[in-house]
Amino acid sequence: MTTPDPAQPGTPGQIDDAGQAEEPLAPADTADTADSADDAARERALRAGLEDYELEDTDLVLLDADGEVIEGYEPEAALPVLAVVGRPNVGKSTLVNRIIGRREAVVEDKPGVTRDRVSYPAEWAGRRFTLVDTGGWEVDVAGIESKVAEQAEVAISLADAVLFVVDATVGATSTDERVVRLLRESGKPVVLCANKVDGQSGEADAAYLWSLGLGEPYPVSALHGRGTGDLLDGAMAALPTESAHGEVRPTGPRRVALIGRPNVGKSSLLNKIAGADRVVVDETAGTTRDPVDELVTIKDVPYVLVDTAGIRRRVHQTKGADFYASLRTQAAIEKAELAVVLVDASVPLTEQDTRVISQVVDAGRALVIAYNKWDLMDEDRRPFLEREIEKDLVQVQWAPRVNVSARTGWHTDRLVPAIQRSLESWDTRIPTGRLNAFLGELVAAHPHPLRGGKQPRILFATQASTRPPRFVIFATGFLEAGYRRFIERRLRETFGFEGTPIEISVRVREKRKR
């Protein structure tokens, strides 16, 4: 028996330094290794060529990440939680809007507008935290008011610090004193806000609130912004740098929101998937008002399914309960990772349906479109409907579509594979070398058209983040929207990205002056 010559590299049965027989590389493995080496060499060459161009500090941070995701939904630690509590109609939601810098919390000149605990991301003096708006806390109440008070108590228990809002024009009431006792029992740091102090004359009223025993009251006008800076400085001093209660995403089950017009079958679908009556179902449109989270295990994989209120029309055109429901649904989309948009197959696609789909795409969430009530379709209409769907959904052809019946459960099992594919695409990352090799081949075959005698040249590209995939292209000139759509289409053809929106941004950089 002859022993293979170890001096000849690549000989089958070659002996390594440890005396073990090495397996020869398969031809496919050899080709993959060569392609990877070529991609890496191309990346190094293009990266070196960028040094001849004027780059900003943000460009260097992006490039020095070396392929790591630098923008995403995974904070290093849970953000500290600041809960805003107080009696009804003392201005809590107005203060919340002032702190977050936008009108997001529902505000109306009557008590009891806010009912749920609603969380908002906020920032002050370079520190990020979670702000929780609560309903008015009252004592000895029944019905929905008692549930609102319970939610406020839950918010206190889950907060790292509490912002207690008191109406300085009214002074401390017996209800305020009861809330103070509750706050002391919680042991949480408390910052006292004396709201509705619109001038120096009101500061004397605020001084009376020392009697509550919570320390210095901060005189504030949430409506006009007076004194909110000092109040937030005090709140930051009370907040820890890391929360004991905050949520770090994306731990735990994936969040899937069921959205669509009223009475399209969202609650029925959730009950059918869960295999039990988890949420109320009624023929009356608009039965669901607030988002309902349900933990459901499907084929041994846990998901949080969020049943939402139906979106009727544009938010600014709604009023009353519809207005609140629209806001809650938008918040549910923002908190979800994927949205299943339900469309009624028995009626033509409406403007509301397309607006709902646009909300999901604009929020950067993965998308699955489910045509419900397919069992009610007339056999003669189905071929025509397929052509209508192709025309109506031309902008989101990348989204998987499933025909289902929430009432009977027909084809609901096909939703899970579609959800999984879309979430995988949402998480997909392309290596920088492979991305630049792809763009090099694409531009060589289909260069950007000349405009004004000039042709922009793509210098380098990288994927800045996932969830959704975001690509940054460095170029010598602006790339037209049509050409960016062409790049997106070819990205999908080459790498998949089924069920996820793609964002492509262009950074125009000029050569350094010598």
Gap from first CA to last CA = 69 Å
Largest sheet: 6 strands, mixed
**Count of discrete alpha- or pi-helical segments spanning 4 or more residues:** 14
Helix content: 25-40%
Q: Proportion of β residues? A: 15-25%
Write down the secondary-structure element order: HHEHEEHEHEHEHEHEEHEHEHEHHEEHE
Structural class: alpha/beta
CATH superfamily heading of the largest domain: P-loop containing nucleotide triphosphate hydrolases
User: Which outline best applies?
Assistant: globular
CATH topology type of the largest domain = Rossmann fold
Number of domains: 3
The CATH C-level name of the largest domain is Alpha Beta
The side-by-side strand order for the widest beta sheet comes to: 2-3-1-4-5-6
Protein name: GTPase Der
Binding site for GTP 2: 260-267, 307-311, 372-375
Keywords: GTP-binding, Nucleotide-binding, Repeat, Ribosome biogenesis
Region (Disordered): 1-40
Q: Mind explaining what this structure looks like?
A:
The chain folds into three domains: 81-105 and 115-238, P-loop containing nucleotide triphosphate hydrolases (Rossmann fold, 3-Layer(aba) Sandwich); 254-426, Rossmann fold (3-Layer(aba) Sandwich); 432-508, K homology (KH) domain (GMP Synthetase, Chain A, domain 3). Helix content is 34%, strand content 18%. It contains 14 helices and 15 strands. The strands form three sheets. The protein has a six-stranded mixed beta sheet, with helices on both faces. It has a six-stranded mixed beta sheet with strand order 8-9-7-10-11-12, with helices on both faces. Strand 4 (161-167), helix 5 and strand 5 form a beta-alpha-beta unit. Helix 1 packs across helix 13. The longest helix is centred in the N-terminal third of the chain and has 23 residues, at 27-49. The chain is globular. The relative contact order is 0.10.
